[in-house]
Amino acid sequence: MSGVHPAAIVDPRADVHPSAVIGPHVVIDGPVRIGANCHIGPFAVLLGNTTLGTGCRVHSNAVIGDEPQDRAYGGGTSFVRIGNDCIIREGATVHRGTAEGSETVVGHRCLLMTNSHVGHNCLLGDDVVLVSGSLLGGYAEVGSRAVISGNAAVHQFVRIGELAMVSGLGKITQDIPPFFMTDRDGAIVGINLVGLIRAGFSVDERREIKHAHRQIYRNGLMHADAVRQLSDTLTTNAGRRLLEFLVGNSSRGITRGISRRKKAA
Fold first, then answer.
1. For residue 114, what pLDDT is reported?
2. What is the domain extent for residue 101?
3. Per the count of CB atoms within 10 A, which of 41, 76, 116, 124 is most buried?
């Protein structure tokens, strides 16, 4: 069943695909674009220059495209872009960019669970999961298939690599490399082995990721020295992606590993 419920409020500037379902008491305010086969649940609010791809489901009381929570925002035109087949659950929020013409981007097949928050100018890859209550500060980047667990908070400008797994209640103030897992303090505690296997990573790729973890977090090397050595030894596709992340531009720096003293305790 498709169509707009008579109790919904839809701005005439909006572009709603005929196959979309717009539930009761939905508010669509501005030039919002909603793709084919989307379902917008009761009391959801979509604002401004927001675009939803095809097959998205937005649940009750979610708010997408509101103004950024940033004192630098001057009222300019900015955007939110949501990919295909995303699920945005109750109370989740996605804010548009701060600077004129900037955007907040959520990739395809992402799951934003209840009361999760995507701040202004964030960039999420495909298949990202934000568990209930997790928060992304402005300009955070999250790689494909990463999981941000419940009530974790990610500092602005932090990068989270692909297939990384952030602990529940995690406090993330520095970059998390791809394929690794954190504790609540944001320290690296190991690799996301189950995630790698499920994602179809080869034995050689997993072996290289394990080797890289030891070099960076277990062998007592300075970060720059570990990366220098890894540049000569990582040859698989996954290994080279990890290396690219490690040498990429970082505003916050790469997070530390869990200390041996803490691990022993």
1. 98
2. 3-139
3. 124
Is there a single domain that holds both residue 130 and residue 9? yes
CATH code for the domain of 240: 1.20.1180.10
Please give the Cα distance from 2 to 22 (Å, whole number). 8
- The predicted pLDDT at position 2 comes to 74
pLDDT of residue 265: 47
Asked whether residue 182 is assigned to any structural domain, the reply reads no
Specify the pTM: 0.95
